[in-house]
Amino acid sequence: MVDVSAKPATARDATAECRVRFPADVARQLRASGLKSAKGGVVDAAIIAGTMAVKRTHELIPFCHPLPIDGCRIGIDWLDEQSLRIECVVRTTHRTGVEMEALTGATVAALTVYDMCKALSHRIVIGPAKLLGKRGGKHDFGAAA
To answer: Of the residues 25, 80, 115, 140, which is catalytic?
Structure first.
């Protein structure tokens, strides 16, 4: 683990996204059902799972520091006729950033969408997942929230 003890605690945030693409027939079915599957509300389950993943990133990624999460927002909406876009924004005030937390939240939310919908098709595609931006620390990147 990197020693961050000499760094000042500053406000930091990161935004990541992950996409989920459905076969056309599955997308139509999900739109018609209001994104409900046999397991229940797809969006609600994905938001809960993504938020839990943000809070436990340090348990999943070996060299991540446990961080106090000041805020986490996950948004899920249709990007186009067949794809959902999941965006995860994470905030903290600490000595290290929350890029991995944002990426973990977005991808676990996407995995949950897959799990909630896999009875409809195994042809669902997850990705790409990417960091959209981060603020705080030495270098800012992209468009963070």
So the answer is: 115
Mean per-residue pLDDT, 33-62: 97
Complete DSSP assignment for 3-51 = --TTSPPEEEEEEEEEEEE--HHHHHHHHHTTSEETTEEHHHHHHHHHH
Which class for 68: exposed (0-12), middle (13-18), buried (19 or more C-beta within 10 A)? exposed
Q: Are 102 and 15 in contact (CB under 8 A)?
A: yes
Decide if 115 is catalytic: yes
Q: How confident is the model at residue 145 (pLDDT cuts 50, 70, 90)?
A: low
pTM over 0.70: yes
Can you tell me which residue has the tokens 């996950």? 74
Is-contact 129 17, C-beta < 8 A?
Answer: yes
110: DSSP letter:
H
pLDDT tens digits for 83-112? 999 999 999 999 999 999 999 999 999 999
